[in-house]
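The protein record reproduced below.
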Amino acid sequence: MRIACFHLFNDYSGSPKVLKTVVNGLIGKGHNVDLITSRGGVLDELKGQENLHMRQYNYKFSRNVCIRTMRYAWVQLQVFFIALGYIFKKDTVIYINTILPVGAALGGRLAGKRVIYHYHENAKAKSTAYRILAKVMQLIASDVICVSAYQRKFIRRKKRVHIIPNALQEKFTGRIIPDCENAFMQKRVLMLGSLKEYKGTDEFIAIAKELPEFNFELVLNESEENIAAYWKTKDLTVPQNLTVYPRQEDVVPFYNKASLVLNLSDRHRFIETFGLTALEAMTAGLPVIVPTVGGIAEMIEDGKNGYRIDVQNREKIKETIKDILTDKELFISLSNNAQKCSKKYSRECMIEQIGKVLEKRP
């Protein structure tokens, strides 16, 4: 079977990382994979593999709405015709990663192929455009893969919707070194995310200022230039105990020297459908603090492997950080439970379940 995978924007965020794991797994199962995506991200690391054919285009995100819309429309036109080109190729499945490559989905449907969506977003919590794309997905998808039970609740269609939690790349898990004794000694709080207000960047900086006794690290999926521009616009000052890093190709070293990982997404403006950074943290044996709702909240049991606290309750977050980083017995208990919990999100299980969906007959 040939699987044509489409992903709009190839960067170092969660959804392309998951796709990389899926593609590696599908190749390992003996499938031929065509990967159609942009240049310049984590998916570039797949180049040169046997049974993989990559086709790439130029695409960059723009903060200007008009430019962003024109770029998006142009890419959709390209991938529409690429997907339509599979019309005479037998035993081909169109695999859409995120709801954004709608052109490829439409082209694949017109070509008479099964169209499988791997749905990572929560469209209801996003813009009108995302909600429209989600409706299109439900109309034309042969099957939809959701990443959490929370996300599944917002899909109206009843049939051929599957809940398959994400898993981590072997490249990541193979280099993680859980060491709860050393992690407790580090007293270092880590957060990884995008440079968006609803992701809690400003709140993380404020918490770092108010807890000078601990070290803080912030890894943003942005360029140094955009980070500097954001600081200037918001008139933010970075405290001495906080180090800010731009986009990183490899985040393993950050987890290996961290003590605690935060996710400060604002539940009133954005809800995490899964929470890849939480899974990465737990794999490293690190406690996590996450919002109270969403797929990410499903992963955490309060007081066992972390805590669920909304970003609006900053005082409670600070008190919880103090408790975790000063009570060694509590820290070790959270650390051990976090690592145990992470094993439920197996790469082998994810690949097996996705493979079954792809191999289904109409």
Summary: The radius of gyration is 21 Å. The domain at 2-167+346-359 is CATH 3.40.50.2000 (Rossmann fold). The longest strand covers residues 32-38. The mean pLDDT is 94.
